[in-house]
Amino acid sequence: MRAVIQRVEKASVSIGGAVCGKIGQGFLVLLGVTEGDTVEDAHYLADKTIKLRVFTDENDKMNLSLADIGGGLLIVSQFTLYGDCKKGNRPSFTGAARPDTAIPLYEAFVARCRASGLPVATGRFGADMAVSLVNDGPVTLIMDTAQMRNNN
Q: In this structure, how many other beta carbons lie within 10 angstroms of the beta carbon of residue 67?
């Protein structure tokens, strides 16, 4: 499971011109799922995401979490995070999990974030979405459970 996490002042996602999810300060999370990912991966990545300390404290140090600042999460599914650009000029997306695998794991990630008590908004899995955001920093992090497992 792979996440691109952007610290934002605000973010929203629209489908067909209608806003379906928005947050103020917090994280925009672009989430991709690959074959072999598990519910444990979803929970681990969600827990890691919500506990990230990348908001500045009174000493201008990245030391505060979402809970510390009262921030929210906007979670958007993005299969293109598993795009493979090694051959040719057209990415291959065979590394992305099929919807029957990806949807339950995306939903497990969202549910785990909601269980934290933080405000959570989402896009709609598989929809053509327009994402708007105001980066804060910018601070952008990439987390991948396969790499995290290999480093433990």
A: 12
Specify the length of the chain in residues.
152
- pLDDT tens digits along 35-92: 999 999 999 999 999 999 999 999 999 999 999 999 999 999 999 999 999 999 999 9
Distance CA 33, CA 81 (A): 8
Neighbours of 18 (CB within 10 A): 6
Residue whose structure tokens are 């979490």 = 65
DSSP 74-93: EEEE-GGGG-B-SSSSS-B-
The percentage of residues in the chain with a pLDDT greater than 70, rounded to a whole number, is 97
- At which residue do the structure tokens 């030391």 appear? 63
Tokens of 137: 């920093």
Say if residues 143 and 2 touch (Cβ distance below 8 Å): yes
Active site residues: 80
Backbone angles phi and psi of 15, in degrees to 5: -130, 120
